[in-house]
Amino acid sequence: MGVKDKILEELKSGPRSLEDLVKATGAKEGIVKGQLTRLEKAGKIEKTGEGKYKLK
């Protein structure tokens, strides 16, 4: 399972911070940030007011 898939799996159980997603995926922060940006642009996730990420 790739980083993107791991992120989407994690977000199924609720909003997660960047730090949470880095721990859950085991990937470097820069990789996770890049995937989050791509997922956000694709309209699959959104950032909450608390700076967490969630599924749309």
UniProtKB/TrEMBL annotation:
Domain DprA winged helix: 5-47
SUPFAM superfamilies associated with the record: Winged helix' DNA-binding domain (SSF46785)
Domain of life: Archaea
InterPro entries, sorted: DprA_WH (IPR041614), WH-like_DNA-bd_sf (IPR036388), WH_DNA-bd_sf (IPR036390)
Pfam families: WHD_DprA
Protein known as: ArsR family transcriptional regulator
Gene source species: Candidatus Methanodesulfokora washburnensis
